[in-house]
Specification:
2 copies of one chain form a homodimer.
Chain A (H helix, E strand, L loop, with lengths): L11 E4 L15 H14 L3 E5 L5 H10 L8 E7 L11 H8 L4 E7 L2 H7 L4 H17 L3 E7 L1 H7 L1 H13 L4 E6 L6 H12 L5 E5 L6 H10 L4 E4 L13 H11 L7 H4 L2 H11 L17 E2 L2 H7 L19 E2 L7 H11 L6 H17 L7 H12 L6 E13 L2 E12 L2 E9 L2 H14 L9 E9 L10 E9 L2 E9 L2 H21 L10
Parallel strand pairs in A: 1-2, 1-8, 2-3, 3-4, 4-5, 5-6, 6-7, 7-8, 9-10
Antiparallel strand pairs in A: 11-12, 12-13, 14-15, 15-16
Chain lengths: ~525, ~525
C-alpha cells in the first residue's frame, strides 16, 4: 500500500491563486493584495505563480507592471491568456500583444479542447481552433517565451470526442508548448477515471500537467491520481480558492506529495512554513480560515475527546497521521464540554499550573462545562481560560475596577458618531473619560484604554487586532445570544479573550475588559501576578 | 473512464454526524438538536443514523430515551459503544449494559485493530483484545441485536501488523458482526492505497464497511476507492463534520455514488432534498455554511467570470458537471466586479427588468463596480441589487422618510440595556417612537418597525431571521470597515439586504432600512412599486 511513483526529473508546482483563485465568489484582490500574496508564494518556493490575465482587465495589467519590481528568489511569474481570435493572426491580435508586453518569461494560454465548446461557445470550426493553438504557441515561442497550454474542458471533451481532445494536446505540444495541462474545468471527474485518460494523452508525447476543480469533492485526489499516471506539473490554488467549489488545494497537494509520496519538492524548512503562508494568504484575501482544512487548519491536529486525551499522554503519534511540525502546525488539546479531566490537566500543565489534584481538576472541569453551556468557548481563547483558572485558584489580580460605562450612537446631520463614557478606579485613583469611535465597541475600547492609561501607560500601545462576533442561536436575528472573540496584541504577543451575552455590546465589553486585565498582569506589571503555589 | 462497479445487493449509508461529527471543534449538539437532525436524516433516507454513545455521557443516554418517540420512516437508529473492558465479561460490563438498554435493534461497537494501540493505549494483550471482540459481539447477538464493528486505526494497524489487523476483522465477523468497518481513524490514507488493503480484508469473508477522515483532503475519494474495492457500507457525516479535519462528507459521497456511479441509493426526489437537508443540519449544528461545498454549496453552481456568463447563454450544461436540480441546488449568476455586462443583463432578466439597452446595462455595471469597491456585495443580496437597479431606473419607491435616529447602551445596576429613538414620516404622518432591545441593532429594529407600523401594520410581522457582520479589512480590530447582511422573512419569503460602513450600527441601520423598504413595496403594498417601462 505504500508503493508510490518516483519523483520525475522535472516537476512543477504551479499556483493559480491570483488568477483562477480570484474567480471565487466573494473574493476580491487588489493589485497590492496580489503583490503580497506573490511574495508569500515565492517565500514558500512554488515553481510558478500565475499572476493574472494582462489586457483582460486593468488590475491584472497593472499587476504585471508593478510585479517587475518584485525580486522573486524561488518562483517564476506566469502571465495567463488565451489562443488568438478565430480568423485573426497571433502576430496582430491585441490580447496576444498584451500578453507579450506583460514581460514574463513564461506564458500560459487556454485553448478549447471540447468539440462542442469550439463549435457552440467559440462558434468556429474544429480545424480553425487547432490553427489558433498552433499559431499562438508558435508566435509566442518566436517572441522567446516559454509556453504552457491549458486544455479547457479536456476531460469532458475526451468523453465527447477523444480524437479531437487529443489532437489539441498534440497541436500544442508540436508547436512548442513545454507543458500541456489537462483541465477538469467543470470539476466532474473521479480519481479512478483519471489514469486511463492521462495515459491516453501521454501517448501524444507531450509533457502533461493537471488542473482540477473540486465539484465532486475530489480535486486533491484527482490531482494525485494524475500525478500517479505521470503528469509532471500540478496546478492549484492556496486554500482551494476558486470558482464554484474551488480548485485543488495546494496546501494539501504539496504535503501529500512531499510527506506521503516522499518527494522533496520544497526544502523541509519551507514546507514548515506552509501553514503560516496559507493563513497569511487567507488574511490578505480576506477569507475566513477553515479550521478543518487538511494539514494547515487550526483544528487539523486538535484533540477533543476525553477518550483520546488520556491515551495521547502515552504517545501522540498513535493519534496523528504525520508530525504536525513538518507543516508548521501543532497538536492542540481542546478545552471543551466533551473533555475529561485529562484535557484540563494537560492544558493546565501547558500554562504552568499544577492540576494534578483530582478534586481541583474536577472543579475546574465542572466550571468550564458550565460556562461553555452558557456559550463561552475556551477552545480558542486561552487568555480567558487562564483567567478562569486563576479565579478558581484565587490567583487572579484586579489591576482596576469599573464603576460604570455607557455608549451611544446617533446620526448628526447625516454623520454617524459613537461616543462612550467610562468610569474606573486604578491604583486608588478614579478616572472618568469619554472616547469617540467608528462604532460603539471601538468607542468603548478607546475610552477604557484612555481611562486605564493614567495608571498603566503601556495599555496605550495595546492593539485590538481582531474582533469577531458569532451568533450562537442562528435564526433568531438580532435576538440571538452572541459570542465575541477579541485578539489583542502588544510587543509581538497576542492573546484572545471571549465574551458572551444577548447584547453584543455587553459581550464585547466583557471581552475588552478581560483583554486589558490579562494584558496588564501578563505583559505590563507581571509583579501583579501571583504565581501558582505548585 | 466511465466504467464503474455495479451496486451491491445490500448497501448501507451510515450517518455518524450525531456521534463522530459531534467531536468537531466548536460543535456542540443538545439532545433537542440531535433529535431534529435525526429527523432530517430520516426524511432524506440514509440507511442508518448513529445517535451517540449511551452510558458514556448523560446527553447521549437521554437522546436514546427520547429517540424512542421518533417515528423514523426510512432510517434505523444505531447506538455506539466499545468492546467490553479487559479482564471483565460483556455480560457484566456496565457500559455494555447501557448499550443494550439504549433499546436500538442495531449496535456499532469500536474495537482496536492496531497492535500498538492494544498494548500501549489499552494496556492489554493482543489475545485478550481478540477475546474482548468475540465476547462482546457474541453477547450482543445473544441479546438479539444486529452488530457492526468499527475496527479503529485499521489502516495504520494493517501497515504495522497486517496479520493482527486482519485477525480482528475475522474475530468480529466469526462472532456474528454483520458488517466490519475499516476505519482510517487518523485519516492518513490516499485513494490509491485503499484497494489492496480492502481486498486483503475481504479475504476474511467479512462484509466490509469504510470510515474515513479528511486529514489528507481525500476522505470522499478514499471512501469511493473503498467502494470500488467492494465495501457495502459507507460511514460519514453531513457537511463533513468531525474531529480534526472531519469525516467523509455524505453530502458529496451520496451524490457521487448516485449520480457519478449511477446507483439509485435514494429515490431521486429524496436526493433533490440533499441541499436543503445539508443546510438545515448546519443551521441546527450552528455551523457556518461553506459556499464552496461540493454539490450543496451556495457557490457550487454559481458563475462569476464575465467570460463564462456570455457562453452560458448558449448552453448552461457546457459549464456544469451535473444538473444542479438533481441535488436541489441551482445555477446562479453572480453580480460582481469581475462581471461583464452579460451577468448584469442575465440578472436583470431574472428580476424582470429589460437591460438589453447596452448603455443602461453599462451604467448599472459601473455603479455596481463602484459600490463593490466600497465594500458592498450584491452576490448574496438580491434585494439590495434590485433597489440599486430601480434607483438607476427611477423606479424606487419611498414608503417612508427618516428624520433622525439614536441608540444607546449602558450598564444600569449590573444590567445592560439598549434603547433606541427613531423619528420618521410615513403617509404624511410623523411618528417618533422609542424601542428597547437585547442590543443596539435589535433596539433600532424594534423602534423602526414600531414607527412604520402605524402606516404599514404588516411590518410588525416582518421577522429579522439572520444578521451577520463581516470585517472587510481584517487585522484592524474595531476600526475595520464592516459589511452587514440582514435576512428578513415575511409570509414564507425571505430577502437579503446589505449595509456597509466603518460604524457597525450605521451599516446595520442601512441594511435594516433597505429591508423594510423592499419588504413594503414587494410584499405589503405592491401598488407602490412602479413597474419597469420595458
Amino acid at each position: 500500500m505504500t508503493t508510490t511513483p518516483t519523483v520525475p526529473e522535472e516537476f512543477h508546482i504551479f499556483d493559480t491563486s491570483l488568477r483562477d483563485g480570484a474567480q471565487q465568489e466573494g473574493l476580491r484582490l487588489s493589485v497590492a493584495d496580489k503583490l503580497r500574496i506573490a511574495g508569500y508564494l515565492d517565500e514558500l518556493g512554488v515553481t510558478f505563480i500565475e499572476g493574472g490575465w494582462p489586457g483582460a482587465n486593468p488590475a491584472d495589467t497593472q499587476f504585471f507592471v508593478e510585479a517587475k519590481e518584485l525580486e522573486l528568489r524561488n518562483s517564476k511569474l506566469v502571465a495567463f491568456g488565451a489562443t488568438r481570435k478565430a480568423g485573426a493572426t497571433a502576430a496582430t491580435d491585441p490580447l496576444t500583444k498584451a500578453l507579450v508586453d506583460a514581460g514574463t518569461d513564461y506564458i500560459c494560454i487556454v485553448a478549447k479542447s471540447h468539440d462542442e465548446h469550439v463549435t457552440r461557445a467559440l462558434r468556429t470550426t474544429l480545424d480553425e481552433n487547432l490553427e489558433m493553438v498552433t499559431d499562438t504557441v508558435t508566435y509566442l515561442r518566436e517572441q522567446g517565451k516559454h509556453v504552457f497550454v491549458d486544455c479547457e474542458h479536456f476531460f469532458d471533451g475526451y468523453r465527447a470526442n477523444p480524437e479531437y481532445a487529443l489532437s489539441v494536446v498534440r497541436a500544442a505540444s508540436e508547436a512548442g508548448a513545454e507543458v500541456v495541462i489537462l483541465c477538469d474545468t467543470n470539476g466532474g471527474m473521479l480519481p479512478s477515471w483519471m489514469g486511463d485518460v492521462v495515459s491516453a494523452a501521454a501517448q501524444t508525447g507531450a509533457n502533461l500537467g493537471i488542473h482540477c476543480h473540486n465539484d465532486t469533492g475530489c480535486a486533491v485526489a484527482n490531482t494525485l491520481a494524475a500525478v500517479e499516471a505521470g503528469v509532471m506539473h500540478v496546478q492549484g490554488t492556496f486554500n482551494g480558492y476558486g470558482e464554484r467549489t474551488g480548485n485543488a488545494d495546494l496546501s494539501a497537494v504539496i504535503p501529500n506529495l512531499q510527506i506521503k509520496f516522499g518527494w522533496e519538492l520544497l526544502p523541509p524548512a519551507n514546507l514548515a512554513e506552509i501553514t503560516r503562508v496559507s493563513h497569511a494568504i487567507a488574511l490578505v484575501a480576506n477569507q475566513p480560515l477553515l479550521g478543518r482544512q487538511p494539514y494547515v487548519g487550526a483544528s487539523s491536529f486538535a484533540h477533543k475527546a476525553g477518550l483520546h486525551a488520556s491515551a495521547i499522554k502515552v504517545d501522540a503519534n498513535l493519534y496523528q497521521h504525520i508530525d504536525p511540525t513538518l507543516v508548521g502546525n501543532d497538536m492542540r488539546m481542546l478545552i471543551s464540554d466533551m473533555a475529561g479531566r485529562a484535557n484540563i490537566q494537560i492544558k493546565g500543565d501547558q500554562l504552568g499550573f499544577d492540576l494534578s489534584d483530582r478534586e481541583l481538576a474536577a472543579r475546574v472541569t465542572e466550571r468550564v462545562k458550565a460556562k461553555e453551556a452558557e456559550g463561552y468557548s475556551y477552545e480558542s481563547s486561552d487568555a480567558s481560560f487562564e483567567m478562569l483558572l486563576r479565579d478558581e485558584l484565587g490567583l487572579l489580580p484586579q489591576p482596576f475596577q469599573v464603576t460604570s460605562w455607557r455608549v451611544f450612537t446617533e446620526e448628526r446631520h447625516g454623520e454617524t458618531i459613537s461616543e462612550a463614557t467610562v468610569k474606573i478606579t486604578a491604583k486608588g485613583k478614579q478616572e472618568m473619560v469619554v472616547g469617540e469611535g467608528n462604532g460603539p465597541v471601538n468607542a468603548l475600547d478607546h475610552a477604557l484604554r484612555k481611562a486605564i492609561a493614567a495608571a498603566y501607560p503601556a495599555v496605550e500601545s495595546f492593539e485590538l487586532t481582531d474582533y469577531s462576533v458569532r451568533l450562537l442561536d442562528e435564526g433568531h436575528g438580532t435576538d440571538a445570544t452572541v459570542r465575541v472573540l477579541i485578539n489583542t496584541s502588544y510587543e509581538g504577543s497576542t492573546w484572545t479573550t471571549v465574551g458572551v451575552g444577548t447584547n453584543v455590546i455587553e459581550a464585547s465589553w466583557e471581552a475588552l475588559f478581560d483583554a486589558l486585565v490579562y494584558g496588564i498582569f501578563t505583559h505590563v506589571e507581571p509583579e501583579l501576578r501571583p504565581e501558582t503555589a505548585a
